[in-house]
Design brief:
Elements: H1 2-8, H2 12-26, E1 31-36, E2 45-50, E3 55-61, H3 70-78, E4 83-89, H4 93-99, H5 101-104, E5 109-115, E6 118-123, H6 139-142, H7 159-169, H8 172-190, H9 202-209, H10 212-223
Parallel strand pairs: 3-4, 4-5
Antiparallel strand pairs: 1-2, 2-3, 5-6
Helix pairs in contact: 8-9
């Protein structure tokens, strides 16, 4: 009876523990957060590793899970990750090979198979360029993009208004670098707390000051429309 019951228990926590142990050592200066989500995201990844050089989203499928949402989860994670790692219990191997060749062959997806208490690499993947994290920022963080401008109150506080202003005033590289700085600060300091209040740190301030005259001109043109 005890043996039958143990076989029916989920091994999700065991897989999660193995992943945290392994990747905490590989990226010792990184931060691992559990059950990560953000504005506009329809999925919540099991683990989220944030490092200055890479962002990895993890999805765990235990011996009690099904793979129905695996493809949609992996593809959404790729929109804001350098790499996606899928950690699947060995029971899913046949189904994986039958229905998910696109994920197996994807250059930015790594697949691990969990068997006998260990995670083994089934297919490898490479990290892509550091993603632009603008769409992961909350409205209070987006508001930092207008913090250096006078008359900033003329831009609304909703995410829609702020994103519209940001895409008009800043170029792609500026958006990439500033949103990365803001997001990394949240991950370092919030620890998942809903009471976290973003502030304009020196690093972010410097990124904006590098082109301040140009940005001010574009901002005032924007609010003058």
């Amino acid at each position: 009876m005890k043996e039958s019951r143990s076989k029916s228990l989920s091994n999700e926590k065991e897989i999660r523990k193995k992943l945290i142990q392994k990747y905490s050592k590989l990226f010792h200066r990184g931060f691992i957060r559990e059950e990560f989500t953000g504005p506009g995201l329809s999925t919540r990844n099991d683990l989220f590793l944030v490092h200055e050089e890479i962002i990895i989203s993890f999805e765990i499928k235990s011996n009690r899970d099904v793979l129905k949402r695996l493809r949609s989860q992996a593809l959404e994670y790729l929109t804001y990750s350098s790499m996606v790692i899928l950690a699947l219990d060995i029971k899913h191997l046949k189904n994986l090979e039958k229905k998910f060749q696109d994920l197996i062959n994807h250059p930015n997806i790594k697949i691990l198979i969990f068997e006998d208490g260990e995670c083994y690499t089934y297919s490898d993947g490479e990290s892509k360029d550091y993603p632009t994290l603008l769409n992961l920022l909350w409205s209070s963080e987006l508001a930092l993009f207008k913090a250096l401008f006078k008359q900033r109150s003329k831009v609304g506080s909703s995410s829609y208004d702020l994103l519209k202003m940001i895409n008009e005033v800043y170029n792609e590289q500026q958006i990439h670098d500033i949103s990365k700085s803001i997001f990394l600060d949240r991950v370092r300091n919030s620890r998942g707390s809903m009471n976290y209040k973003p502030v304009l740190l020196e690093e972010t301030n410097n990124l904006m000051n590098n082109n301040l005259l140009e940005l001010q001109k574009k901002f005032y043109n924007y609010i003058g429309k």
